[in-house]
Amino acid sequence: MLHGLRSTLLAAALYFATFTFSYPFTPQDSNRDPLAGNAAAQRTVTATKRWLAGTMSTPGMTAQLKEISRSQVKGKLEVQYHIFVTGAPKDQTYTLIDWPPNVPDPSPSIAGLSILDNGLVVCAGRATDQCSHPDKPEKKDAPVKLVFYPLDGEIYRLALVSKDQKAKLFFAVIPAPIQITDNGCTLEVISLRLKNAIVLIRGKGFQPNESLVFQSKSDEQTQTPEAPDKADANGEYQLPMAPFAKGQDRGATEIKLQGGKCAPTLTFKWGN
């Protein structure tokens, strides 16, 4: 049992090690790239963008989290989810992988997961390779329950990898988003490093390919691009950012993304 579990986890870890180096970051103009020269941060940003876009999963397969509980526990936000999968083979077992943006490597979490006919991911508990153990059998078809205690803007990057390595499903969730909506446009800050040392600015709901003006101000230090940015063909916008102001170890940054019909503006904190 333990040997088989280790083999499954090792295979999943090796797959992710390959993934890390299979998607090199192509830098933008270094004058506009706040992460120029920081290869680790660039890889984190690139991987997170692909995670959010849903382009890394095996074609025809998707995984989504369904929120089942949200409450305060001892002064902390607790959010619980079930996992639902579509398009993936049900005759395989899967390993759940967790890769926080602020750590260098992925971490296999639960091996031997199964998928029910309705897509729910469970510990089937019918065999030792289905989240069960002879000395401590699991309840049959027990749904996998993910429990998070998120910081504001914290993203959880997750994946399911089949035992035969042919099915790979990447999905992410931000249980406590930092975001605001203005006239149908959403502006969001996604935290990629502790204390928001690096964030990903994400805009949605803009007109396809329209010109946008992004502005940021950290403790009276204002930055405005020399030329307008553009939304992509889906009306979305993404920009990595290191918000720390020169000479400061804490503070707040105000950001604004202005399009033709909207101009969402929000403020977020960084540092100690």
| Helix content range | 10-25%
The fraction of residues assigned to DSSP E strands is 35-45%
Radius of gyration: 20 Å
Major beta sheet summary: 6 strands, antiparallel
Major sheet: arrangement of strands:
6-5-4-3-8-9
Number of domains: 2
Number of strands: 18
Structure description:
This protein folds into two domains: 2-173, no CATH class; 178-271, Acyl-CoA thioester hydrolase/BAAT N-terminal domain (Immunoglobulin-like, Sandwich), CATH 2.60.40. Strand 1 and strand 2 (76-86) form a beta hairpin. The strands form four sheets. A six-stranded antiparallel β-sheet has the order 6-5-4-3-8-9, with helices on one face. Strands 13, 14, 15, 17 and 18 form a five-stranded antiparallel β-sheet that branches. Strands 10-11-12-16 form a four-stranded antiparallel β-sheet, with no helix packed on it. The chain is built from two helices and 18 strands. The protein has helices at 2-22, 39-53, and strands at 62-73, 76-86, 94-98, 107-115, 121-123, 142-143, 145-148, 156-162, 168-173, 178-182, 185-191, 199-204, 211-218, 221-223, 229-230, 237-241, 250-258, 265-271. Helix content is 13%, strand content 41%. It has 272 residues and is mainly beta.
